[in-house]
Amino acid sequence: IIKKYNLPSLEKAFHEVHNPPSHEAKNEASERIALEEYFILISAFSCLIGMGGAPQASIRMGARDNEGAEKILGNCFATLFIIAVILTISLCLAAEPLLWLFGASENTIGYAADYMSIYALGTIFVQITLGMNAFITAQGFSKFSMLTIIVGAVCNIILDPILIFGLCGMPKMGIKGAAIATVTGQIVAGLEAFLWNLWKNSD
C-alpha cells in the first residue's frame, strides 16, 4: 500500500519543489511540503494509538466487557497525552532543523518556523481529536466524530481572516494569526472529543 499510494505522492511533491514553473512557485511548494510533512508527523502518532486502540475497545464492548473497553480508552488517552508532551517539547526545540529536513527554503523558513512554533503548542489537542475520534467512531457515532472535525474547521475558517488581517478590532498578526486560528480550532475539536468520551463512558 505504501509503495502504491504514498511513494508516488511524495515523488510528485519533491518534483514540485525542484522543478517548479517559477522561483515563487518553488518557495510556495517548499513551504507547503515542509508544513505538510510536519502535520503528518504529528497526526501519525495519534492515528497509531487511536486506530490501534479503538478496534480493541470495540471487541471488548462486543464481548460485554465494558470495564475492559474503558481501561483501553483510558490507557490510550494517557499514552496520547504523554506522546503529545514529548512531541511538543521536541518540536519546540527542533522546529527549524525539522523544517529544513522537510524541504523548507531560505525564503520560507521564517514564515514556516513562526507558524510551527505556535502550531506545536496545539499538539496535545491534535492528538486528542484524532485519537479520541477513533473511539467515538468505534462506538457507532461516526456522525458526531465528523461533527467535531467540522466544528474545529469552521472555527479555524472564521478566525483566519480576523487574526491574519486584523479584523474586528484584533491586531494584524499575519502567519502567526493563521497558526493561532488553527490551534484554536484544534482546541475546540479536542475538547468536544474528550468531553463526549468522558460523558458517554461516565457509567
Folded structure, characterized:
This protein is mainly alpha-helical. It has helices at residues 2-18, 23-62, 66-93, 95-101, 109-119, 123-138, 142-165, 175-200. Helix 2 (23-62) runs antiparallel to helix 3, helix 2 runs parallel beside helix 5 and helix 6 packs antiparallel against helix 7. The longest helix has 40 residues, at 23-62. The chain starts with a helix and ends with a helix.
Question: What descriptors fit this protein?
Answer:
0% strand; globular; mainly alpha; 203 residues; disordered N terminus
Shape: globular
Q: Determine the structural class based on helices, strands and strand pairing.
A: mainly alpha
Main pleated sheet: none
β-sheet strand percentage: under 5%
Give me the strand/helix succession.
Answer: HHHHHHHH
Task: Give the terminus-to-terminus CA distance.
Answer: 40 Å
Rg of Cα set:
19 Å
Low-pLDDT runs of 5+ residues are: 1-30
